[in-house]
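Section 5.1 Outputs to date
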Amino acid sequence: MAESWQSYANLVGGVTRSLRGRASASTWALLGQVGLEDAVVDAGERIAKLVEEIGNASRANRELLETLIAGEVDKAASRLGFVRTEDLQQLRDEVAELRAEVQAAAARRTTRPAPARKTAMKKAAESAAAAG
């Protein structure tokens, strides 16, 4: 059954392409007889250029509008005290780095004894022995 539908679709597609080709050939033949073939080609080129210009203008306008909207949203968000996700993530990364540095410094400090404390304890013991 599926093969039948596929064959039918192929047949219809072939007929459509064939009819389109014949219609196009007939149209160009009629335009050539009337002498409008060059005018149609020229009009087609002008339409293609116009479409390209409209597309370029549309892209430029869209980019301008996006920039304008993003600026206004940023202004409104900053007035309300909001921050951008990128800025927040950057601060989070910086805080994580600082925490790691503090933990590393604390680990270095706890792994070696403080010499000043030891010396102070020795002096206190010597003074107590001498006084006693």
